[in-house]
């Protein structure tokens, strides 16, 4: 990251979208767009369960920064499924644990259980951000485990937050963390024993049961889909996770991730790295594949002067993105996090969602409009 974006001090001001005390509210103005996909969604925002946070960044001549957070419908008690956004703290906390062990680096490797395959931390983190690779996330999760992950986030003031299962794998909710063998850079080996965590209490939140039915096997069950045992990562907690990575100096020491500067820089590099630069086929993994804001609804290449440090989530009809966007050509920077549910038939797990017709266009246009208003 460029030195010009280093933060020395930061003041935070949180403002609701509906607040009349501010004459200029970019988020409110954006959501009042009189036509197009934003207007379409905002005609019925409750159906789409929209939540948005936009952070305006103001810099003084000496480089000091201040932030104003504009929010729309943000409430941690209103549940949405976080999907792959949980991979963000998994990657960060895994490297935090690694940094606490001597003679290790992002190039260290580890194996899981009795498997002979060794996984390199740098490669798993890269895959996790570039194409949101599930296996890479699950490998890193096995290294950090439920308790260290959940307690570590809570201890940094990043709550509410709770991870109860892995992603897209058999027996994803197993509370047994497999033994890990860590191969240090000096050739020595550290073994971590298997750990079993306690059972999780079901969540009790607004919207924890969604829809009119869900697909199980080949049968539609005519009951709401129950998310009470699923992962929980509210938008504000997600947004504040990103702030701690990009602007660590804005937080007290005990609120920061205990990362070496090399590890933090590697995370930031991986977050903005495009699939084509990470070795993936650009035809299948186009630039906007994991960049929903501004480019999620297009397969056109992202200009080199725009860097998007982000993590997305996509599952069960819910799309979420959390991003720090930097436009070096126009001297623009801002943070934005948003989630939207697109499930017209209200049947979950059937794979029939309006991602392409509503979800991606909405997040893409939201990013473009906020980029435009930030420039103004």
Q: What is the H-and-E element order?
A: EHHHEEHEEHHHEEEEEEEEHHHEEEEH
Question: Which range does the strand content fall in?
Answer: 15-25%
Largest sheet: 6 strands, mixed
Principal-axes shape call: globular
Secondary structure: helix percent? 25-40%
Give a brief outline of the structure.
Helices cover 29% and strands 23% of the residues. With 376 residues, it is an alpha+beta fold. Strands 1-3-2-16-15-14 form a six-stranded mixed β-sheet, sandwiched between helices.
Describe the structure.
Helix content is 29%, strand content 23%. With 376 residues, it is α+β, with helices and mostly antiparallel strands. It has a 6-stranded mixed sheet with strand order 1-3-2-16-15-14, sandwiched between helices. A 4-stranded antiparallel sheet has the order 5-4-7-8. Strands 12-11-17 form a 3-stranded mixed sheet, with no helix packed on it. Helix 4 (87-99) packs across helix 7 (146-155) and helix 5 packs across helix 6. The protein is globular and about 60 Å long. The two termini are 24 Å apart. The model is unreliable at 1-21 (pLDDT under 50).
For this entry, give a set of tags.
single chain; 376 residues; alpha+beta; six-stranded mixed β-sheet; four-stranded antiparallel β-sheet; 11 helices; 17 strands
């Amino acid at each position: 990251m460029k030195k010009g974006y280093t933060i020395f001090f930061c003041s935070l001001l949180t403002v609701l979208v509906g607040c009349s005390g501010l004459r200029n509210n970019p988020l409110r103005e954006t959501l009042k767009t009189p036509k197009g996909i934003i207007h379409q969604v905002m005609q019925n925002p409750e159906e789409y369960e929209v939540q948005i946070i936009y952070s305006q960044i103001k810099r003084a001549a000496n480089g000091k920064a201040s932030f104003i957070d504009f929010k729309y419908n943000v409430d941690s008690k209103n549940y949405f499924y976080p999907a792959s956004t949980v991979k963000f703290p998994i990657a960060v906390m895994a490297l935090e644990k690694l940094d606490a062990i001597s003679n290790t680096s992002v190039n260290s490797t580890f194996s899981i259980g009795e498997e002979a395959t060794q996984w390199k931390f740098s490669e798993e983190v890269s895959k996790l951000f570039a194409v949101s690779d599930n296996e890479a996330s699950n490998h890193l999760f096995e290294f950090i485990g439920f308790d260290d992950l959940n307690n570590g986030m809570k201890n940094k003031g990043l709550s509410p937050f709770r991870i109860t299962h892995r992603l897209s794998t058999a027996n994803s909710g197993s509370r047994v963390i497999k033994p890990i063998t860590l191969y240090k850079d000096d050739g020595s080996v550290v073994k971590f024993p298997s750990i079993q965590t306690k059972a999780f209490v079901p969540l009790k939140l607004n919207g924890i049961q969604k829809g009119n039915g869900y697909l199980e096997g080949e049968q539609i069950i005519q009951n709401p889909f129950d998310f009470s045992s699923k992962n929980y990562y509210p938008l504000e907690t997600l947004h504040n996770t990103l702030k701690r990575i990009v602007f660590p100096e804005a937080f007290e020491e005990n609120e920061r991730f205990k990362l070496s500067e090399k590890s933090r820089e590697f995370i930031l590099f991986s977050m903005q790295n495009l699939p084509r630069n990470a070795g993936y086929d650009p035809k299948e993994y186009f630039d906007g594949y994991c960049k929903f804001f501004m480019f999620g609804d297009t397969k056109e290449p992202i200009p080199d002067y725009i860097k998007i440090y982000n993590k997305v989530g996509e599952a069960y009809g819910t799309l979420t993105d959390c991003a720090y966007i930097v436009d070096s050509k126009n001297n623009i920077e801002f943070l934005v996090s948003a989630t939207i549910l697109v499930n017209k038939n209200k049947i979950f797990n059937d794979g029939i969602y309006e991602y392409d017709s509503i979800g991606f266009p909405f997040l893409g246009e939201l990013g473009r409009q906020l980029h435009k208003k930030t420039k103004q």
